[in-house]
Amino acid sequence: MTGTPPSLLPPFWLFFAVKEEAQPFLKSLPSLGWRPEPTAGKGHRFRREGSTLRLFISGMGARSARATWEAAGVQGERPGCVLSCGFAGALDPVLSVGELLCQGNRFCPPLPFEEGRFLSSERVILKAEEKGRLFRESGCRAVEMESALYHEFCDPLGIPCATLRVISDAADEDLPLDFGALTKEDGKISLPALALDILRRPSKISALIRLGKNSRLAARNLSEGLTTLL
Asked: What is the pTM of this model?
């Protein structure tokens, strides 16, 4: 399906935290008829039959998301809808790696994905034990770091906004490294710091390989989900 649901209107603004989340979808856009256009602002810009799609890589965390949103608005274009896309950690134990979860605001039409509330966190949740506690306390089904800010911006303006996230780590899984501690001020992971951390703890390599495999599956599934909308 490549047609856009009539109630989901352009211009489409899509926000991802890191390039690994967005890469499969970016590669798929030409086959869907989206043609790249030059842009003076931040991010990527595409056009198809008069519709505009803008895609942004913000970096991790609310601070980076806020800066990216503010930069996106400099060109004066009002989005027809906003999608916060990327990975999320499962809190609900029934969610599997690669499964899509969606939460729209009151202006967003129903989307063809399983629905569930997201917990907005200021840091990466590392331990399965903490995921379980957060699930019990909040009732939210998954956790991520940026989407609440986009909803906060869109709601007062009446802009349809949805969080569309894919599970990259299950509720019973510990993350092998504290990626938040390895994140620079611009929201990007420091590769030298990551390499040093791995050297210090080589026992984590197998878990990192498994996480990488799961993340690639998650990114592919997210891309497939987005192509049904756009």
From this structure: 0.89
